Amino acid sequence: MPCLVSEPALNNGGDVVYVNVHGEFKEVNSLTVRSFDRRFVLGAAEPASATTLKGWPCVIISDQLTVRGYSSPIAWTPTAKVTLSRPDLSLTNGTIVVKNEPGESTIEGQRLVKELMKLMKLNERYSVKCLKQNGWIFELAVKNFEE
Fold first, then answer.
1. Smallest Cα–Cα separation from 25: which of 65, 63, 62?
2. Is 125's pLDDT higher than 80?
C-alpha cells in the first residue's frame, strides 16, 4: 500500500481525530521487553486529492512514536483503581520534606535498602536511588530494576 502523506495546509481549522496506541514488544536480539506509544492526528482528505481517489477518507497529519522501557499496561485498564493520598509535607529551611515515605533515614527505609542490596546485588547508593525512583515500593523497585 502506498504511503499517505499529509498535504500542506491541510485541515486548517477542520476537525481532526487523535488516536493513541499503547503496546509492548520484545527486541529480537536482546529479548528485552519494551513499551511504546504511538500518536496519530488524522484529518479529512481533500475531495480531489490522491488520497481520496485511492479510497481513503482521511490522511495522517501527524505521527509520533515513543519507545521506552517496559511499563505495565495496568495504567490503561479501565477497572484499575488508583488510590492517591496527600503526602504529609513540612517546610524546613526552604526545603519541602515529605514525611509519609519510608525514606532511607527511617528504620523501614533502611530495611528496604538492605533487602534490595541483598536481593539485587546492588551497593547502598544504587539501592537507595532505585527505591526513591519507585516511591519506596519494594516490589516495584525490583520489577523495574529487572527490566
1. 65
2. yes
